[in-house]
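Worked example 3 (structure in, sequence out).
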């Protein structure tokens, strides 16, 4: 059967109207990690799925008050209201939960405070401030909220205002603290998020010598009984050790659509589409592979879910597809649909090749070239090497080849301007239908009568060639030093976050690290790529450099790499397994 015929069946049975209904309803929930609204949105997903005829639907529940791997406990948190006002030198409301619940930084302590604003920039270098200069003041910063908050809350500051420098002037960014229960007991200063436009106005007042007084009012409550709910829908309930997973995270603030109501709602409608096709006899469950759909809170749901699923149950998950931000009006968000591949050492070439083939066909419909030689894609589409930032990271840590479909860059990402007007239901439908076609072919096995080895060979050539043409503009610079030491990862699974590091590293060491990871790629290497690489192999410093080059065509400075490895060693996450330890690197920048 041709791909076009399979595509037509899925397209005709995938309802755009239902998709929009699910998008609108899910967006109403303020789906912050640890909140009741997050649990209620899981119930909403479950209640739709339980009426299907062909799927076995169940939930897994874990607790936010427990640690899972590298993921520290998170306090349960529910927002009632938030308001921020300038009282002097003018009077105006600058943020309110009436308009956006992003007003309150997620997990902010409740409280009503009034005080003078002190600007601290990124909040990292504050040596010029006197020890008592922040007492009874409200801090204004564009730095990492958790780092700034944890660093300065003990100075006597009574409140915090955060903004971002790289978003729309009028956007209220989604920011969070992810406080542990013990931190929630200790800290009392409320934290809020404001638009950059307002922050700049406050800064102009301060620069001309005006005293700026602000009132912050956050009404919220903490809970120690917050549940992490994962919803799973399996096509049929027959026993099969081999599973293909399609998954999405359903958390994030209310009325933010593309991240990631778009992926969650699209998966939901795809389940109903497959249920219809099964009832019509077009699709039959496979006796050899099980198709599994999963919805979870990002990272905090996927990690305990897989710990339970893979380690305890010995399930063999052969492939995963992560849908995260997949339905955007590209002309407005300025984004591209990207297929993010797994690293080359955790790969399923056949499935990756098949998915690319289906996506290119789906995105090229009814757009012939000038002479009718071929169809032209009507959406921006690209293929990228492994990047982190979503739940495919967790699947990869369990050695499960997984890809992510994601729209990036998005100029409204993590702000209240990621609203319904930026959502493209047709784009989401095309992605959902493509994933459905992929699933059909995988379940029916050789439905297209494609030579698998030919497809794999062509894909490997394509992947290597595309990477070389796109990324490589220099040759690999091999080190002249011979490194006998090898390193391997020994820590628990999970995504290494700056919060985890801040909680465990002395303040003077933290500043050095932040200077290094200010470069985005260095941060990615530290928190994602190097741990993942060393989970799979024990490697020397030069082998790690070579691995990075093979994946990204980037020559990483040897001293920088040594520093990153030293930090991971300090955190007791990697170990040297051969004769001598590396000497501590110089920390001079």
């Amino acid at each position: 059967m041709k791909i076009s015929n399979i595509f037509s069946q899925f397209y005709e049975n995938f309802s755009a109207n239902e998709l929009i209904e699910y998008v609108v309803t899910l967006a109403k929930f303020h789906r912050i990690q640890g909140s009741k609204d997050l649990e209620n949105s899981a119930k909403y997903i479950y209640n739709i799925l339980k009426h299907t005829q062909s799927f076995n639907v169940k939930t897994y529940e874990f607790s936010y008050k427990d640690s899972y791997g590298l993921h520290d406990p998170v306090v349960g948190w529910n927002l009632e209201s938030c308001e921020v006002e300038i009282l002097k030198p003018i009077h105006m409301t600058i943020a309110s939960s009436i308009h956006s619940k992003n007003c309150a930084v997620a997990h902010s302590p409740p409280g009503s405070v009034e005080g003078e604003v002190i600007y601290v920039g990124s909040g990292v270098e504050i040596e010029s401030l006197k020890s008592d200069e922040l007492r009874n003041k409200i801090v204004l910063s564009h730095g990492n909220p958790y780092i700034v908050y944890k660093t300065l809350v003990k100075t006597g500051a009574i409140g915090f205002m955060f903004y971002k420098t790289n978003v729309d002037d009028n956007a209220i960014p989604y920011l969070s603290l992810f406080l542990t229960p013990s931190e929630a007991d200790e800290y009392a200063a409320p934290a809020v998020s404001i638009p950059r436009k307002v922050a700049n106005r406050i800064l102009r007042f301060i620069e001309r010598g005006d005293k700026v007084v602000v009132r912050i009012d956050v009404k919220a409550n903490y809970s120690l009984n917050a549940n992490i709910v994962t919803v799973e829908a399996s096509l049929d309930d027959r026993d099969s050790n081999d599973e293909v997973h399609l998954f999405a995270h359903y958390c994030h603030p209310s009325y933010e659509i593309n991240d990631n109501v778009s992926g969650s709602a699209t998966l939901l409608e795809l389940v109903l589409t497959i249920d219809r096709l099964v009832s019509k006899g077009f699709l039959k469950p496979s006796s050899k592979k099980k198709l599994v759909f999963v919805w979870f809170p990002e990272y905090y749901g996927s990690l305990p879910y897989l710990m339970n699923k893979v380690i305890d149950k010995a399930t063999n998950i052969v492939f995963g597809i992560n849908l995260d931000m997949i339905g955007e009006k590209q002309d407005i968000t300025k984004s591209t649909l990207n297929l993010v591949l797994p690293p080359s050492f955790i790969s399923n070439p056949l499935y990756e090749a098949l998915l690319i083939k289906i996506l290119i066909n789906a995105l090229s419909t009814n757009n012939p070239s000038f002479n009718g030689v071929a169809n032209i894609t009507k959406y921006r589409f690209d293929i990228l090497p492994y990047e982190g930032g979503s739940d495919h990271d967790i699947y990869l840590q369990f050695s499960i080849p997984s890809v992510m479909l994601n729209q990036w860059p998005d100029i409204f990402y993590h702000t209240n301007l990621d609203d319904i007007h930026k959502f493209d239901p047709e784009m989401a439908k095309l992605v959902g239908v493509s994933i459905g076609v992929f699933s059909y072919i995988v379940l029916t096995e050789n439905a297209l009568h494609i030579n698998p080895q030919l497809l794999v060979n062509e894909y490997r050539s394509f992947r290597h060639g595309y990477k070389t043409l796109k990324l490589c503009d220099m040759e690999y610079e091999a080190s002249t030093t011979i490194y006998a030491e090898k390193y391997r990862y020994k820590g628990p699974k999970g995504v290494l976050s700056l919060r985890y590091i801040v909680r465990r590293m002395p303040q003077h060491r933290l500043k050095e690290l932040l200077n290094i990871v200010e470069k985005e790629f260095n941060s990615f290497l530290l928190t994602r790529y190097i741990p993942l690489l060393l989970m799979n192999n024990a490697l020397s410093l030069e082998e790690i450099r070579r691995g990075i080059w093979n994946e990204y065509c980037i020559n990483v400075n040897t001293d920088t790499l040594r520093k990153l490895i030293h930090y991971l060693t300090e955190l007791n996450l990697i170990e040297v397994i051969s004769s001598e330890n590396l000497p501590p690197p110089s920390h001079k920048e």
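Notes: The longest helix spans residues 425-444. The two ends are 60 Å apart (CA to CA).
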